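Researcher: Going back to the complex we discussed earlier. I've cleaned up the inputs and rechecked each line, so this should be the final set. Can you rerun the prediction on the complete assembly and write out the structure?
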Amino acid sequence: MAGIDAALPGPDTHDEKDVFDVTTLRYNLQHIDKIRSVMNIASGCVAGICGLTGLEGLVCFLMLHLSVLILIWGFKMNFQLRSYTRQSIWSYSTANLQQSGLSFTLFWTLFYGLVYLY
Amino acid sequence: MSSQNILLDSDIRDWVVLPLFIIMVAAGLLRVHMGNLLKPDPKNQEKIAQRTQASVRATSTLKTGAIHFLSTSKLESRKIAYPELLKDQAEWCETYLEEKEKEKEENPTDDDTDMPNPLAAMDGMKGGMVAMVQNMVMMQGIQFFFSGFILLKVPFSLTMGFKQMFQRGMDGLTNLDTSYVSSISLYFLFMYGLRAFFRLVIGTPTLETQETQKMWQKLGKKPGGGAPNASKEDAQIKALNQEADNLEMILPKQFKSNLDNVEKRLLKNKYPKKKTTLGKDDFLLHKTTGKKSKKNN
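Model: Rerun complete. Updated structure for the full complex:
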């Protein structure tokens, strides 16, 4: 991912209000979004094929969602959220949670039905 | 609650579930392309808007990564020149505006300031209308064609209250688990769940188009009587001046490029320690002065 901090060790590198490179910030957010969508669909398929129902499925969704976020944070951002997106941890974790949940449910239902009911 | 699942006919899967999936995806794509076709032609921008956008775009490279490809001397000269450039453009825009106002006072023509605004509102509504119409049509069609059988089981349990909504065409089955759903509920599930899917497939529009959309929003949202055009353009000129001030403030005093000493950073240990002295004939940088060659002269 492209870093958005200024490359100079000036006094305004860690200025919270100033983003040095707006286009890379937007690119990073789009990228994270894409990764999340694909992984949510995949985890829906996984949950459906494994035959999880009810609460187990919800737990599976949360675990997989969190692990995807942590992996992005660790491997792509080198554990520095500030340098890559100007988001707080909370908003990073819960961005587009509703849409992810719905698409997870869709593919979960679909694959559960395809495998177990037909 | 029995843990046994009802086994459904595989014909339902072949002829209903998968076609429904294909229909929903196709409908979504259709909606996107219809939206593109129904979009209004882009208007020509006013001269002042053109100037402001172009100058901001040209000078924004200093902030967004010019340190990666320009050397320090070039950066310094641009750092001095760009704020001046922006201020010159702002002055030009102001004089242009004054001249236009003088012209308007001299020949009072019909005011065409009211024309753009109602049309702008209509175009926003058109997109919404397409989506709504399509939703209604699809719901009716699906209810007509795919009614009367169970389609899928949602993997979580629902309360009895949802029974009426999710099991539409099946009045006789009062004891059936609420989890077994009919086609309408699958339609809703698809509608919401495929939004994320469409974002992947179709992709968000490129950043340029997004920015132009934002500009249109800004231009469309300045209606009103009095002097609408003047306020809009004044705001743009102000933005130019602000941008010039921003550049002056934000760029650090020692504006060093990332390319300084890049050879030393790249080669690290292998950077040659001794300076090679070049003789007159050394155009290939080989040392021909010094050691005598063993060739026969």
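Model: Worth noting: Residues 40 and 104 of chain A are 6 Å apart (CA to CA).
Researcher: Good, that matches what I expected from the previous run.
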